[in-house]
Design a protein that fits this description.
The complex is a heterodimer of chains A (193) and B (251). With 193 residues, chain A is an alpha/beta fold. Chain A has a single domain, classed as Rossmann fold. Chain A is built from 6 helices and 13 strands. Chain A has a 7-stranded mixed sheet. In chain A, strands 6-5-7-10 form a 4-stranded mixed sheet, covered by helices on one side. In chain A, strands 8-9 form a two-stranded antiparallel sheet. Chain A starts with a strand and ends with a helix. By secondary structure, chain B is of the alpha/beta class. An 8-stranded parallel beta barrel of chain B has the order 1-3-4-5-6-9-10-11, surrounded by 7 helices. In chain B, helix 1 packs parallel to helix 2. The model of chain B has no long low-confidence stretch (mean pLDDT 92). The chains are: A alpha/beta (193), B alpha/beta (251). Chains A and B meet through helix 1, strand 8, strand 9 and helix 6 of A and helix 2 of B.
Chain lengths: 193, 251
């Protein structure tokens, strides 16, 4: 099985790579279009600001490629936000795979939303067989509201999308690669899709 | 609900854990990676590695250690010590650190916080503040409490937030090492006046102290070193206790 980690200069590629290594998988880190297209599974990570990340994607033409992918794709954190239509972070147009805004948490809350929180309303094979206690690790200041593509929610003053799915595109707001054994189980489920 | 975090802190010198303790089940009590893995398995929510070598010749040892931690540990970890410029932070990011912690470098050149934020995002930047209560109020200290500055704790914390830190690690020098509890009054004041998470540090001695800092101190996380290293409190016992006390915690 060929797993590709899109390496476009935005963030935590290394952490995701190590998490996959712990599962016995050696992913290929690349921004090469042909290599990404021919992969069995594609992981699309990201940290930092949505605007900077979009600029990086555009610089390598990945903004046009990613929405056309047909194999399972997993967005992580900012990767998930970039799959949406538009982000309030830097007022930037994103990839538009999922028809949703990315919004800033309202004032009065501690931002970033940082730490371990529950995921609920789980509606995807990604979360099958998880134990009853399943907290995962979040670090983010912007969020995707609950919408028709939401497959998991988390409560931080209000419910937001902890995970979304449309067709072959899956995405998690939390850092599955840093979410202990639960995170590893979720990554495994994605790899088994 | 967002859980309160329990964070063991490991002091590192020349790539080894300082205060090596004989832990059952460790191949090598001085290897930070073994200890980190043990804490992670026991339920620690994050880890902090504080490099007290911090000489330039030894930076490579630290980077190798960070990579080994990142390869094996599946929870987030912060690395602090000796970071004074963007390149130091970038090397740690590349080695696999999730966050970096800066202290005196931020006091000497506060713009560093803005620069780190711009390069890596707020989530990567922890600012550690050591402070002591003096006749003139709470002052920021450097070098483990040896050098006094004229910065007021609360004003400096506000500035740190405004410049783009994602988190503050506050150590009260009055409480550190006393095992008499955290500086909850000051922590609560920080937590209420700022909008970023606050990690309490200094003073942990009993499990009740953790409960108190989460309730009275309104802390988002609590850090401790020796009580975990010397097994005075085990993380599973602590988390079980906090859960019973209705503190939101990850088991």
């Amino acid at each position: 099985m060929k797993i590709v980690l899109i390496d476009y200069g935005a963030g935590n590629v290394q952490s995701v790579k190590y998490a996959l290594n712990r599962l016995g998988i050696e992913p290929s880190l690349t921004k090469d279009h042909d290599e990404i297209k021919s992969a069995d599974k594609v992981i699309f990570p990201g940290v930092g600001s949505a605007k900077a990340a979009m600029e990086q994607l555009k610089a390598s033409g990945l903004d046009a490629l990613i929405p056309t992918l047909t194999q399972p794709v997993l967005g992580i954190c900012v990767g998930m936000q970039l799959m949406c239509k538009h982000s309030e972070e830097g007022d930037v147009q994103c990839l538009g795979i999922i028809d949703s805004e990315v919004k800033k948490f309202k004032p009065g809350l501690k931002i970033p939303h940082m730490g371990w929180n529950n995921i609920s309303n789980l509606k995807s094979p990604l979360f099958q067989g998880l134990p009853t206690e399943h907290q995962v690790y979040f670090v983010h200041s912007y969020y995707v509201p609950v919408n028709e593509y939401t497959i998991a929610t988390t409560d931080y003053s209000n419910d937001f999308s902890a995970a979304i799915k449309k067709d072959n595109f899956y995405a998690v707001q939390f850092h599955a690669e840093k979410s202990g054994d639960i995170g590893e189980q979720i990554l495994k489920k994605f790899l088994a899709l | 609900m967002l859980s309160k975090r329990i964070i063991p802190c490991l002091d590192i010198k020349d790539g080894r854990t300082v205060k090596g303790v004989n832990f059952v089940g460790l191949r090598d009590a001085g290897d930070p990676v073994d200890l980190a893995e043990l804490y992670s398995k026991e339920g620690a929510d994050e880890l902090v590695f504080l490099d007290i070598t911090a000489t330039h010749e030894k930076r490579k040892t630290l980077l190798e250690l960070v990579t080994r931690v990142a390869e094996r540990i599946n929870i987030p970890f912060t690395v602090g010590g000796g970071i004074s410029e963007i390149d130091d932070a970038y090397a740690l990011l590349k080695a696999g650190a999730d966050k970096i912690s800066i202290n005196s470098a931020a006091v000497k050149r506060p713009e560093l916080i803005n620069e780190l934020n711009a390069h890596f995002g707020a989530q990567f930047v922890v600012v550690a503040i050591d402070a002591k209560k003096t006749e003139d109020g709470w002052k920021v200290f450097l070098r483990g409490g040896r050098d006094r500055t004229e910065l007021d704790l609360f004003e400096w914390a506000k500035e740190v937030e405004e410049r783009g830190a994602g988190e503050i690690l506050f150590t009260s020098m009055n409480h550190d090492g006393t095992k008499a509890g955290f500086a909850n009054e000051e922590l609560a004041r920080l937590s209420e006046s700022l909008n970023i998470p606050i990690i309490a540090s200094g003073g942990a001695g009993t499990m009740e102290h953790f409960k108190d800092t989460f309730i009275e101190g309104k802390s988002d996380a609590a850090l401790a070193a020796s009580i975990f290293h010397f097994k005075e409190i085990s993380i599973p016992d602590l988390k079980g206790y906090l859960k019973e006390e209705k503190i939101p915690i990850r088991l």
